[in-house]
């Protein structure tokens, strides 16, 4: 199967790009209202948190995929003014020492650029994540056997505060990546997401899920970091945007290998797939917190021109 040909399910009148939504308020959780029901939010404090699926309201956010049994949900936050803001959340697979996915959003609070990237001269650049049980922690700055520490939630995704940016340097947010892939190829897709996420004229909120394939041996290249951490064979980004109560979605799926430079816009477009296709490929149920009537439509098709391609 050639996964890199276009996977567009074009429907009459490009209904995905034009679908008008009134069933779901786009401020689904920041206002403590989820589909019309009040939810209890965590106390406002700079924190790192873990919780069960059934008790944590963060799992109901639109960007959060369905969780796989046996894995654990975690999130990092910071205080912005009087509010607790989630930097990103993730599902951790203890058997692979790797996050199955990370999820975040760009909105009026998280899209500003206020700080710069954490200083590379820091005594400790990458930090072990104390959220994890001790036996599953990856040590500070631990070697990935010569491969790059590739951010899943990019440092440049979270520039709205010092704490938020520092949170992106936890080892749970790192994935072992081939140098040219991390520094040129993956970075190009990250830059695209950041540009769209910070453009309020493009999206009121852009919901983002990123990760690498670690669920099956056929989609893992090898294990690094003393044979504990999976190196994904493919990486993906799933995107859901809302603008004026209209939702649309798209995804990228790319092979993890050596590339000769950064991709062109046309080459980036070749990696576009529908959310439905990405779900079939990865086994992850993205954007499942949308009402079904919306989810079924936006995940089945994509209009590349509406996303700048």
Overall mean confidence score, pLDDT: 86
The number of helical elements comes to 6
Radius of gyration: 18 Å
Shape: globular
Beta-strand proportion: 25-35%
Structural class by helix and strand composition? alpha+beta
First and last CA, distance: 24 Å
Helical percentage: 10-25%
Keywords:
309 residues; alpha+beta; disordered N terminus; single chain; two-stranded antiparallel sheet; eight-stranded antiparallel sheet
Short recap of the structure:
Helix content is 16%, strand content 27%.
How would you characterize this protein structure?
The chain has helices spanning 15-18, 162-167, 179-197, 265-269, 275-282, 292-298, and strands at 33-34, 37-38, 48-51, 72-80, 83-93, 98-106, 148-151, 174-177, 205-212, 220-224, 229-232, 234-243, 246-255, 272-273. The two termini are 24 Å apart. 16% of the residues lie in helices and 27% in strands. β5 and β6 form a beta hairpin. By secondary structure, it is an alpha+beta fold. The model is unreliable at 1-6, 9-27, 29-46 and 50-55 (pLDDT under 50). The longest helix is centred in the middle third of the chain and has 19 residues, at 179-197.
């Amino acid at each position: 199967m050639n996964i890199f040909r276009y996977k567009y399910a074009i429907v009459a009148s490009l209904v995905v790009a034009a679908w008008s939504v009134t069933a779901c308020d786009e401020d689904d959780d920041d206002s403590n209202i989820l589909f019309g029901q009040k939810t209890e939010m965590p106390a406002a404090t700079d924190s790192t948190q873990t919780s069960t699926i059934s008790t944590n309201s963060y799992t109901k956010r639109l960007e959060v995929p369905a969780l796989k049994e046996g894995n654990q949900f975690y999130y990092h936050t910071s205080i912005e003014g009087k509010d607790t803001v989630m930097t990103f959340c993730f599902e951790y697979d203890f058997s692979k020492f790797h996050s199955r996915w990370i999820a975040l959003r760009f909105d009026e609070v998280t899209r500003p650029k206020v700080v710069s990237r954490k200083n590379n001269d820091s005594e400790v650049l990458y930090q072990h994540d104390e959220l994890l049980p001790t036996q599953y922690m990856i040590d500070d700055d631990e070697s990935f056997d010569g491969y790059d520490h590739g951010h899943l939630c990019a440092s440049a995704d979270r520039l709205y505060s010092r704490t938020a940016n520092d949170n992106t340097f936890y080892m749970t947010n790192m994935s072992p990546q081939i140098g040219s892939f991390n520094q040129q190829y993956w970075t190009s897709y990250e830059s695209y997401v950041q540009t769209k996420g910070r453009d309020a004229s493009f999206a009121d909120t852009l919901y983002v899920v990123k990760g690498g394939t670690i669920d099956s041996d056929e989609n893992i290249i090898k294990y690094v970091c003393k044979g504990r951490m999976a190196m994904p064979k493919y990486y993906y980004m799933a995107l859901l945007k809302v603008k004026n109560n209209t939702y649309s979605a798209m995804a990228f799926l790319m092979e993890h290998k050596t590339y000769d430079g950064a991709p062109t816009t046309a080459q980036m477009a070749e990696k576009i797939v529908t959310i439905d296709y990405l779900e079939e490929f990865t086994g992850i149920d993205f954007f499942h917190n949308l009402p079904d009537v919306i989810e079924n439509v936006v995940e089945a098709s994509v209009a590349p021109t509406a996303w700048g391609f």
